[in-house]
Write a structure and sequence with these properties.
This protein is α+β, with helices and mostly antiparallel strands and 449 residues long. Helices cover 17% and strands 29% of the residues. The chain is built from 7 helices and 20 strands.
Amino acid sequence: MRRRFAVAALLALALSGHAEAAGAILVTVAEVGSTAATLWARAPGEGPITVDVGPVGEAARRLTLAAAEGDDLVVQRRVDGLMPATRYRYRWRQGEQHVEGEFRTAPREDDPAPVRLLWSGDLGGGGYCRHTGHGYPIFRSMAGREADFFLFVGDTAYTDSPCRGHDMVPGPTAPARTLADYRAYHRYNREDQTFQAFLRRTPVFAVWDDHDVRNNFAGPSEPRMPAGRRAFLDYWAIAAGDPTATRLYRRVRWGRLLEVFVLDTRQYRSDNREPDGPRKTMLGDAQRRWLVDGVTGSTATWKVVVSSVTLAIPTGRPERRDSWTGANILGFSGNGSTGFATERDDILRAFRRADVKNLIVLAADVHHAEIIRHQPHPDWSFHELVAGPLSATTGRPRPLDIALGPRSLFAQGGVRNFGEVAIEVGGGLTVRIVDEEGRALFSHRIDPE
């Protein structure tokens, strides 16, 4: 009851107005594990800022950090020594400004605890930026699901798409080119009060996609990538403030039932225009080995791979496909097709040979929701779950790559949405697609093998 009251209070705060949160402390909790979490804040001004953190109802420890203009007033700290499966409360303060929030740590690796996660992507694109009257309303519905964490699957900011319009909160007016520009786009989204109310109680694991830097970019040939990557790391606290960090792919263990493998599909990819083949890569050699070794060796019931781009839904032009598949509009691939299907199929073949069971791929990017059961081989299948957009132009379903033996269980465009995955103590998994108003559009149960 206490938790429901707190959620209601935060939602009421979000509904009370949508003026910019500039001048307020912005907060996020990221990279939560069983014994550690990263606390992130953007201060109102330069100087010391404190955070008190401790288990709900118990004594808190105080940390003092220094906010500096050169860091865009952003501070972040990895807090170790936490207790598994425990709800923590934190309170940031600078001067008269203060803000509180809560999060729950992951259970121990051998704990068969239930888990509820949300996922989606694509925030603030195509002119659908922060509305002057209701901000980003989808986060109210997401907050009501009381998830353990949120997987933000790419396009966390449309840094190549200025926000303007008579009913939009004014934002950056030109595509980002410098570090300051990229930070401004992230800051614009983070200042939305509805988003902040959600972030105060829901830990986040974020990964980038193309619009976090530039449409359909390939990292090795993109001159803007270092600036975009630095701003992304600044605002999503993946590396706890390490200025030399560049790695975005990582794994998240959540008790006995779930292990999540978050991919970086941008930083190491070959040029989209290259013909598909054994030398073309989206992940790079090191990340590909990490993925195959991690998934095939995982002892979790469910193995969830997070890919910002889809496996079976073609995106980009035929001569420069941007997702894994190079299929045409009928679902067929031919000689000289682009895409990254050779690498995709090699990875899936390694999973099948290792008899990986209960594999789920989560994706976004295509601006419509879809639940797909793939059967690329008669004795092996897995599911691909697609959600989004959070707030951007909406897309529509299209033919799937027939090489994966796909069966679409649900597909709907024209609606902003997010996905929910709930895993029960016994291991059963239920996936739901939920719209902006909080209505479940589709529900599907998957029993573990």
